[in-house]
Amino acid sequence: MSIKRKIITFLSLIGPGLFLIGYNIGTGSVTTMAKAGAGNGMSLLWALVLSCIFTYILMVAYGQVTIVSGKTALLNIKNNIRYGKSLALYIMAALIVGEVFALMGIMGIATELLQEGARLIDGTFVISTASVTAIIVLALFVLLYYGKYEMFEKLLTTIVLLMGLSFIIVFFMVKPNFQEIWKGLIPSIPQKPGSFELIAAMVGTTCSAAVFIVRSIVVSEKKWAIKNLKTEKRDAFVSAFMMLILSGCIMAVAAGTLRASGKELETTLHLISLFEPIGGKLASFILIFGITSAAISTIFPIILIAPWLISDYAGKPRNIKSPLFRVLGGLGLLLSFGAQFMEMRPPALLVFSQAFQACILPAVTLPVLILINKKSIMGKHTASNLMNVGIGLVMIFGLVTTYLAIIDFI
User: Fold this and answer.
1) Which of 52, 40, 41 is nearest to 177 (CA)?
2) Rounded Cα gap, residues 255 and 239, in angstroms
3) Residue 312 and residue 78: Cα distance in Å, rounded?
4) Membrane-spanning residues where (predicted)?
C-alpha cells in the first residue's frame, strides 16, 4: 500500500475525531488558553490535562452508546431515562444559549481582527466592525441557503492548520521553561480575581458538553457498527490528544510572549502579540486570518447546532437545505450582531461563554453513565468498572468546575 493510500485510510478511520478538533480548537480555545497563559503562565496546565483526559472518557462513552444502540444522544436520553424528556430539553436549551453567547464573542473577535488587518494593509483604510459583521453574515447565509459550505470549509481548514503550525513553531521560538511546564501539572488556583471563571472556561472549551452531543451525531452519520468500537476509541484518543497538544502550545506561547512583556489578554488586538517572535506584518496576517478562519469555520457549526439538536431530539434526518436549518441558521447569524451592542469586550464575552458551557457538563455526564450501564440498550457492551470510575470522576470534576464558575458569576 502506498504512503498516500495509508494516509487516506488513516484519515478515514478517524473522521469524527478530526471534525471535533476543528470544532473545538477554534477562537474560543485560542482566546481562553491565551488568557490563561498570559495571566498565569503554565500554572493552570493541570486543568487542561484533566479536561482532555475527561474529554476522551466521555467521547468514548457517547460514541459507544451511539454505536451499540443505533440512536443519537438526545433521542436516547429522551426515550431511555426517567424524566429523560425534561433532561433532554434542558440540555438542548442550555447548549443553544451557551452557543449563542459563544457566537457573539467569536464574531466580535473576528470582526475586530479583520478591522486591524485592513488597517495594516493601508493605515488610512477604516471599516466599522458592524460592516465587517454584515459582510460575514451575508456570505455565510448564502452558503447556508445553497448548502455550498464544503469547499469553503476546506479553504478555512487549510488556513487554520497554518495557524496551528505557526503556534507550534512559535512554541519552540519562545524557548519555554520545561520546569515551569512540569510544575503546571500540580493543581493550584491563582489567588487573583477571575481565576475560578478562567478554570471553568478552560474546561468548557475543552471538555465541552456540546462536543459530546455533536460527537454522537457525527458518529451516527459515519454509520459505524459494533465492529468499529475499537476504531471509535482510537478516534477519541487522537482527538483528545491533539486538543491537549495544540491548546498547551497556545498557553505556552502566551506565557512566553504576552506574560513576558507584562500584558494580560484584555483586548482582541493583544492576540496579535502572540506571534511577535516571528515578527513583521506577515506574522500578524497569519494570526489574523488564522483566528478569523477558525472563527468563521466555528460559526457555521454553531448556527446549525439548534436545528441539529432539534433533529436529534425528534429522531429526524438532518437536512441542511430544509426550512428548519435555513430559518434557525439565519436567526443564529442575526444573533451574531449581539457583540455590537454589549459593553463586555469580545475576549471576556467568549471566556464567559466557555465558563457557561462548563456548567452544563454534569447534565451530559449523568445520562451517559445511566445509558452505558443499561443492559436493555447495551447488551454485553455495558461499561467496564474502569469506565464507570472514569465517568464518575468526570461527574465530580464537572460539579467542582460548575461551583467555581458560579462563584465568579455571582
Assistant:
1) 41
2) 24
3) 10
4) 7-25, 45-67, 87-111, 123-146, 155-174, 194-215, 236-262, 282-311, 323-342, 348-373, 385-407
Please report where in the chains the cell 470582526 appears, as a residue.
111
Length of the chain: 410
List C-alpha distances in Å: 403 to 57, 78, 102, 196, 409.
22, 27, 20, 9, 10
Query: Would you state the pLDDT for residue 4?
Result: 44
C-alpha torsion sign, points 145, 151, 156, 161: positive
Q: How confident is the model at residue 342, as a pLDDT?
A: 72
In three state form, how does the secondary structure of the chain look?
CCHHHHHHHHHHHCHHHHHHHHHHCCHHHHHHHHHHHHHHCCCCHHHHHHHHHHHHHHHHHHHHHHHHHCCCHHHHHHHHCCCHHHHHHHHHHHHHHHHHHHHHHHHHHHHHHHHHHHHHHCCCCCCCHHHHHHHHHHHHHHHHHHCCCHHHHHHHHHHHHHHHHHHHHHHHHCCCCHHHHHHCCCCCCCCCCCHHHHHHHHHHHHCCHHHHHHHHHHHHHHCCCHHHHHHHHHHHHHHHHHHHHHHHHHHHHHHHCCCCCCCCCCCHHHHHHHHCCCCHHHHHHHHHHHHHHHHHHHHHHHHHHHHHHHHHHHCCCCCCCCHHHHHHHHHHHHHHHHHHHCCCCHHHHHHHHHHHHHCCHHHHHHHHHHHCCCHHHHHHHCCCHHHHHHHHHHHHHHHHHHHHHHHHHC
In this prediction, residue 185 carries a pLDDT of 85
**Per-residue model confidence (pLDDT) at position 13:** 45
Q: How wide is the angle at C-alpha 98 spanned by C-alphas 62 and 67, nearest 5°?
A: 15
- For the entire predicted model, the pTM comes to 0.82
CB 80 within 8 A of CB 66: no
The residues of the chain scoring below 50 in pLDDT are 3-4, 6-15, 17-19
Residue 49 has a pLDDT of 92
Question: What pLDDT does 370 receive?
Answer: 92
Residue 244 and residue 250: Cα distance in Å, rounded? 10
pLDDT for the residue 389: 95
**Residue 15 exposed, middle or buried by CB count within 10 Å (0-12, 13-18, 19+):** middle
Tell me the C-alpha distance between 209 and 366, whole Å: 12
HSE value, Cβ hemisphere, 13 Å, CA-based, for 125: 9
Using an 8 Å Cβ cutoff, are 37 and 253 in contact?
yes
CB 214 within 8 A of CB 74: no
